Amino acid sequence: MLRRQVERPRFSWADRAVLSALARHLPPVFRRHRLVTPGTLLTWHRRLVRWKWRQPPTGPGRPPLAEETVALIQRLARENPTWGYVRIQGELRRLGHRAAAATIRRVLRRLGLPPAPQRASEQTWRSFLRSQAHTLLACDFMHVETVFLKRLYVFFVMEIATRRVHVLGVTARPTGTWVTQLARNLLMDLEDRAGRFRFLIRDRDSKFTAAFDAVFAGNGTAVIPTPPQSPRSNAFAERWIRTVRTECTDRLLITGERHLRTVLNQYAEHYNAGRAHRSIGLRAPDDDPNVIPLPAATVRRHQVLGGLLNEYLTTSPRLPHHPQETPSSAS
């Protein structure tokens, strides 16, 4: 009964180490009555040797790329659609990252980015406008209802790169001849800057006649009509119409052409010189991007359109005035 109650002893690693070390020094009499066999001792010894020399488990193949390297590969591929795998590999090496061309191909496939020729051919209208922004002009009409329910039309042109707006004219009956003359006036106002513009985006309004296109063609500017019923193709001009309505014309009662022309001229001046734009780094179109304004102690408000809009200007504090003392004349 006692033998059935006693279970087989379980040795810990300390017990096994002690028994393995002392087994050689036991007398021959006790060796016959050892608790373990020689094969068990050898097995324990092999386990100890394997435990001593074991290494942390590693997965098969090469170690994976760092997340920052994968993100950099994706960025280079998206920002440069004409770069192939080897070109990206060379740029990574210049930046201190090493990756094989096959690895770059595998990463781009996993991210769903096609090879360079396909990426270059998938250029969107937005990316085209951004790449050509410094050579683009956009024009359009907007209408405003007066307090006497008379509709007035406003013709404007925007410089896409700087977002500078030119309000060219206001009339109740726009015609092709009127629009063509405003185009001539614009090129005269731009003077030397007119030569930098290569494209003009306009819709298919009947008031844009062949004479209108010929005015810009003489300046070397190609006219690009937007597809029918596609306002997004002229998104910059459409966005300005929404902005001027939200901030200006929808908050005023316009009485006539003269009133609307005065209001829009003041708003265009505010839009070009005193309003921050998200698309150009929260600067105004007329701000110098190379000038970093320093904080000033005095901030003054300048009201536009009778307080409808506010502009804030910084002024440096005035130094105390010390009148110069005139030396007394020698007697």
TrEMBL record:
Highest taxon of source: Bacteria
Location of the Integrase catalytic domain: 113-293
InterPro entries named in the record: Homeodomain-like_sf, HTH-like_dom, Integrase_cat-core, RNaseH-like_sf, RNaseH_sf, Transposase_IS3/IS150/IS904
Coiled-coil ranges (or none): none
UniProt GO MF annotations: nucleic acid binding
SUPFAM superfamilies linked: Homeodomain-like, Ribonuclease H-like
Protein name as catalogued: Integrase catalytic domain-containing protein
